[in-house]
Write a structure and sequence with these properties.
α2 (37-44) packs across α3 (61-93). The chain has a single domain, classed as His-Me finger endonuclease fold (3-Layer(aba) Sandwich), CATH 3.40.1800.20. The radius of gyration is 23 Å and the shape is elongated. It has helices at 30-34, 37-44, 61-93; strands at residues 8-13, 20-26, 58-60, 97-98, 110-111. The strands form 2 sheets. The protein has a 3-stranded antiparallel β-sheet. Strands 4-5 form a two-stranded antiparallel ribbon. By secondary structure, it is an alpha+beta fold. InterPro entries: Znf_AD.
Length: 114
């Protein structure tokens, strides 16, 4: 058995890839809770995990790394979207205009609307 204090168990099945691994992390252990593993799985993957379901409650190092990469990607995308929305609101507030279509027969520039 691995150290339970560090949230590591040895010789269990990964909840995500269903493969046996020598070292896994318990999803609801101290480290799993600190890393918000169950919340990330439920948010980013098309499965739901809970303490009461009958399936494994462990995740392997490879799947954890992939889950963390997905989390970083989503956080980066959300940050960029918020930044772009803020810039758009600032332009609208200053009365800036943007061209919607250069080949249009209508007016060349239309005001940006929320």
């Amino acid at each position: 058995m691995g150290s339970l204090d560090r949230g590591v168990l040895t010789g269990f099945i990964c909840r995500l890839c269903s493969e046996m691994h020598r070292v896994v992390l318990h999803i609801y252990g101290e480290e799993g809770i600190r890393l918000c593993i169950s919340e990330k799985i439920n948010r980013y993957l098309s499965i739901n995990v809970s303490r009461s379901d009958p399936l494994p409650k462990t995740i392997c190092k490879n799947c954890l790394e992939r889950l963390e990469n997905q989390h970083r990607l989503v956080m980066r995308i959300e940050h960029a979207a918020n930044m772009l929305k803020g810039q758009r609101r600032a332009r609208v507030g200053r009365g800036c205009y943007v061209s919607l279509c250069e080949n249009s027969s209508g007016p060349p520039h239309l005001p940006i609307r929320k």
